[in-house]
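[job 0412] stage=complex_fold ligand=NAP status=START
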Amino acid sequence: MQTPTKPYTLIDGRKISIEIKQEIAAKVAERKQAGKKIPHLAFILVGDDGASQTYIDNKVKACKDVGYHYTMMRFADTISEEKLSKHITAVNNDEDVDGFIVQLPLPAHISVERITDRIRPDKDVDGFTNRNFGSIISKVPLLMPATPFGVMELLRRYNIETEGKNCVVVGASRIAGAPLSMMLVQQGRATVTICHKYTQGLADYTRQADILFVAVGKPGLITGDMVKEGAIVIDIGTNRVEDRSKPSGFGLVGDVDFKNVAPKCSHITPVPGGVGPMTIASLLLNTLRATELRHP
Ligand code: NAP
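[job 0412] stage=complex_fold status=DONE, emitting structure tokens
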């Protein structure tokens, strides 16, 4: 006879992101009513990468949903770093723009680090600049990195306590794992282990996790035997895989083998519909914050 598995709670990032968007739309309407400035978000897209275009389309749609103004700036992938930097300076100085993002990836001849750090920190609504990255460890963060900010918000809205918990973060990138680890320590008061490509015996760490976060970009990296019973699993990975049943020919999966991991969990995020929509919600929250700071 099979042991019945306990039902798990699916952490519905799509639903929470809709709630956040409704809250933001109400605040935008209030600002409009009071004659205050409406948030204005600008997008810089270099080249014609299909995935980047999809991400930008979703962000533009989110702006429309909440009533933000937006500007789309497109450049050919042959643009020089110097020219792109000049455009960034222009947006930095544009008084009407409250926040902007440079969609990644950039062409190989352009340095992501140099370009990102040209963005004015108080308009850096992706939270990628060194100033905003560093501000995570201050008690007064400026604009937080969007993806980890979204993860922390998801935990908060599901009443998932991190204080004193054993959190394991797999992946240590600049945009996901590294800032998330720091936020879990600083804001979440968790005990945090960070694992990466060179970690020996990954499963020995993941099995210790009360809450496991995964941001690597490898479908199926986390298997059922790597997760302890009752753990909470947050899958940040977003990987395009071939799916002939879809009109686009591809589908999205995370880094976690959902089918075999979910039955062991108390809570788990799906992909798609988990962390992804929260990143866009965070972008909108950061843009509102940037606007409120400049135009209280
Ligand atoms: P990245 O820059 O390539 O970083 C991947 C990280 O994983 C690195 O720290 C790398 O270690 C580590 N790693 C690689 N192989 C590993 C392994 N076998 N075991 C353990 N760690 C390993 O990627 P990223 O930009 O952080 O993105 C990671 C995933 O998250 C992708 O699927 C991406 O699409 C997704 N993502 C989703 C969102 C969202 O909004 N949902 C936002 C951002 C990213 P080293 O540091 O040693 O190289």
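The chain is about 40% helix and 15% strand.
[job 0412] exit 0
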